[in-house]
Amino acid sequence: MSTHRSFFNRRLHSLLGVIPVGFFLLEHLWTNYHATQGAAAFEEKVNWLWGIPFLPVLEIFFIFLPLMYHGVYGLYIAFTAQNNVGNFGTFRNVMFMLQRVTGVITLIFVAIHVWQTRVQVALDGMTASELSRQTAEVLSNPVNVTLYLIGIVAAIFHFSNGMWSFLVSWGITVGPRAQRVSTWVWMGVFVILSYIGIRAMLAFTSPEFTSVLAR
Amino acid sequence: MSETATATKQKTVKFIITRQDSPDSNPFIEEFELEWRPNMTVNSSLMEIQRNPVNCKGKTVDPVSWEANCLEEVCGACSMVINGTPRQACTALVDNLSQPIHVEPMTTFPVMRDLAVDRSQMFDALKRVKAWVPIDGTHDLGPGPRMPEVDRQWRYELSKCMTCGVCLQACPNVNANSNFIGPFAVAQVDLFNNHPSGSMNKQERTEALIEDGGLQECGNSQNCVQACPKGIPLTTAIGRMNRESTKHLFRKWLSI
Fold first, then answer.
1. Which residues of B touch A165 (CB under 8 A)?
2. Domain B6-117 superfamily per CATH
3. Interface confidence: ipTM more than 0.90
4. CATH architecture for the domain at A2-214
5. pLDDT tens digit string along B196-206?
6. How does pLDDT run across B46-65, given as a tens digit for each residue?
7. Å between A132 CA and nearest CA of chain B
8. Given CB atoms, is A47 within the 8 Å cutoff of chain B?
């Protein structure tokens, strides 16, 4: 059985990337998108989430630990590969490289993002409106805006392309036609989610959002 | 006059070869210039260098060492990296290559000397996944089951594999840091699992394929299918074996 450890680890890594990490990404983008309707709509969603019973348990076992496993084992996978896009400039080989690059960027971004938002909320015992103010403050700095833009796009790319690989690795899309169709589908998902993610981020920087907070 | 001069000048072919004297020595570069001949290949050029091992500096050197056998792209022995692409030297027509022609050994494998590499890890992988049909015995087993035509067609594609090593050289996940046995081995499991008699040992092969360094090490860069000189649908075989191992995983873990 022990000789099957790497098979088990790889499949677990693949599964956790979708459930729960991928699912959480979608939920997170959806919640934040409410910021486009103003601070009140966003805070309502935040309060609803904070009302979920046993929230810290859920956060630790369904977000933090799976994310850590996916991130740490992912780093091992990323640094095991020897990229050769110079000699093989095919689309899939470029995607292979980008999957590893965006994975590393996303891990760094998530660490910063969790520190700036989730950890600060816990340390200072913030309310939902204080959280909006804190986020708007973080995003009033153009350096942070650039960082978030790169981080959000990298995370969404890693999710979309990761879904393509997930379907291959579990033997769902087997043949070249199925894999080609899957490429187009996840490319579409990447574009739509990037729009949602970037709009949500820009909402926190808009003057209307900050003026509501000031009141 | 100048046209003739240019024509005469173009009638040579330059080779930049990465050489190595022994498995442990450092690689070095040596250049050779040969007279152009119609239909010459990298393999025929290496034979020419063997006959007259004089480098660009006019110095007589040790002839370049390489492996070759069938000279018709079915044995896989003369695989090397030609202008960045791993392929067989016997079918690499010089007229189709940009010059100077860079020739290197497939460094995914241990280099023995010059362009000759040790591909025994591939044969070890085939042994590990039991890529054969075990029918040897002391008594007559009778005729085997018939094979459906669709299976025969699929198996024919996979049976073209000549263990040349090009897919391993092309794969970013086959390297010194990883123990991935390579795409070809996955396709060979699919080949023998789909043989009507071979399918009786399907479980053993699938089990061996998902041991450490097996199928799961594939990162879907899909270079193998692009690089394979025999056009074997390697990524489809990987997809099929992914499906098979998913089934295997559930079948096994839900029944013990």
1. 219-220
2. Beta-grasp domain (3.10.20.30)
3. yes
4. Up-down Bundle (1.20)
5. 999 999 999 99
6. 999 999 999 999 999 999 99
7. 40
8. no
